[in-house]
């Protein structure tokens, strides 16, 4: 077996024409959201994003509003602002999410569960409520909900996160049936282990806890990935572009894993 660089090389945005498409990306100023927003903009779309990260927003090249999607009043305000700015909508990307608590279920505070539910699941429900009238007015469109491989697997010590990501898949498949008659396609993307600062911090912390080097822990992280590499944010962005393009016109109700064929997730038992 050949040795692979754990992080694949850079790729450009999928060459599809999305000129003039109106796109909302929640949590679109950093990380995966920024990659998605940038890819749509690179292919001619008009993009509006929200985020809570002030530093990321200050550097964001797209029109934006600060909005905390854990709060329904802020979702209401943001969606009104974004839809007014764009003059309609063709694509909604529900990207906002948090990791939630890492603990056994007996040790998870109810408030931590509520926060994870509000941001990871309820926020998607509420943004769709706002998007539906304008998507219908446009004659259809695409809703892309970001879930996770945790939305198809059991993940010990991460029950709130996994439950919400499974919920996103259920919401997606139900909406696809409900909204298909209006020409609205609804799909979920399930990223695996995504290269970037977040996974770097996780690996460094786990390596310290396990008494391993970063390189050894990286190999453990990727041991359950058939392709042996991390996912790039650009891989997720390009799938979003495909689904929003005419090439994705007959794809709806799907939960699409972008994970290098991840078969198992690494996890650590709680410290005694």
Regions with little confidence, pLDDT below 50 for 5+ residues: none
Question: Mind telling me the C-alpha Rg?
Answer: 18 Å
Distance between the termini: 38 Å
Overall pLDDT: 94
Count of distinct strands: 7
Oligomer: single chain
CATH topology of the largest domain: Rossmann fold
Kindly report the name of the CATH homologous superfamily of the largest domain.
NAD(P)-binding Rossmann-like Domain
Domains counted in the coordinates: how many?
2
Q: What string, H for helix and E for strand, traces the elements in order? A: EHEHEHEHEHEHHHE
Shape summary: globular
Q: What is the CATH class designation of the largest domain? A: Alpha Beta
User: Which structural class do the helices and strands define?
Assistant: alpha/beta
User: Into which percent range does the helicity of residues fall?
Assistant: 40-55%
**Strand line-up in the sheet with most strands:** 3-2-1-4-5-6-7
CATH architecture assignment name of the largest domain: 3-Layer(aba) Sandwich
Largest sheet: 7 strands, parallel
């Amino acid at each position: 077996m050949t040795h692979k660089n754990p992080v694949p090389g850079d790729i450009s945005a999928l060459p599809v024409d999305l000129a003039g498409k109106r796109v909302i990306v929640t949590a679109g100023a950093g990380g995966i959201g920024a990659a998605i927003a940038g890819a749509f903009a690179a292919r001619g779309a008009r993009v509006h994003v929200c985020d809570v990260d002030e530093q990321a927003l200050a550097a964001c090249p797209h029109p934006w509003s600060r909005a905390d999607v854990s709060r329904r009043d802020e979702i209401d305000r943001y969606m009104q602002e974004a839809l007014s700015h764009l003059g309609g909508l063709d694509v909604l990307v529900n990207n906002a999410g948090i990791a939630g608590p890492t603990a056994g279920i007996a040790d998870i505070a109810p408030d931590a569960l509520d926060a994870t539910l509000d941001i990871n699941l309820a926020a998607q429900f509420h943004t769709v409520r706002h998007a539906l009238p304008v998507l219908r007015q446009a004659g259809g469109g695409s809703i892309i909900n970001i879930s996770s491989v945790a939305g198809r697997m059991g993940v010990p010590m991460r029950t709130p996160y996994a439950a919400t990501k499974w919920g996103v898949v259920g919401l997606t498949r139900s909406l696809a049936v409900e909204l298909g008659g209006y020409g609205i396609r609804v799909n979920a993307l399930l990223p695996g282990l995504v290269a970037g600062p977040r996974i770097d911090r996780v690996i460094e912390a786990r390596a310290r806890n396990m008494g391993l080097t970063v390189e050894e822990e990286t190999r453990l992280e990727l041991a359950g990935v058939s392709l042996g590499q991390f996912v790039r944010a650009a891989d997720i962005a390009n799938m979003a572009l495909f689904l929003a393009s005419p090439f994705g016109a007959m794809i709806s109700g799907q939960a699409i894993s972008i994970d290098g064929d991840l078969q198992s997730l690494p996890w650590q038992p709680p410290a005694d």
